[in-house]
Amino acid sequence: MLGYDTLAEAEAAAPAFVLFRQGSLAPHVFDGPSADHISLVHWVNRLTGSEAEVSSVVSLTPDNFERVTTHPKRNVLVQFFTPW
Fold first, then answer.
1. How far apart are CA 69 and CA 27, in angstroms?
2. Residues of the domain holding 25
3. Could you give the CA distance from residue 13 to residue 78 in angstroms, rounded to a whole number?
4. Which DSSP symbol is given to 72?
5. Confidence (pLDDT) at 78
6. pLDDT at position 32, please?
7. pLDDT, tens digit, for every residue of 4-45?
8. Residue 53: how many CB atoms within 10 A of its CB?
């Protein structure tokens, strides 16, 4: 697993999938060979010891980023990308 010390470092690695574990802004960046949804769910489950399923997609903004990613009862997988 690639590790980043700060959120800014994780964002700079875009495109990337970044996991924020329950209540934390410490980023865990997906480094698997394939970013299909099955590989991503298996990766999240391995890191968290859970049996996660895809539940919803939310567009993050500067206004809601911290509130969504630090949810105390959810692990949050974020896809950072550039639109061009």
1. 10
2. 2-80
3. 13
4. T
5. 87
6. 76
7. 666 677 666 556 788 888 888 888 888 877 777 788 888 888
8. 8
Continuous segment of H or E residues that includes residue 7: helix 7-12
Half-sphere exposure of 17 (CA within 13 A, CB side): 17
Strands (DSSP E) contained in the chain are 2-3, 16-20, 27-29, 76-80
Residues 24, 1, 59, 62: what is their CA dihedral angle, to the nearest 10 degrees? 50
> What is the total count of domains within the chain?
1
Q: Tell me how far apart the alpha carbons of residues 34 and 67 are, in angstroms, rounded to a whole number.
A: 29
Query: Which single residue is written with the structure tokens 């700060």?
Result: 6
**Does the pTM exceed 0.70?**
no
What distances in angstroms separate CA 14 from CA 22, 38, 40, one per listed residue? 22, 20, 16
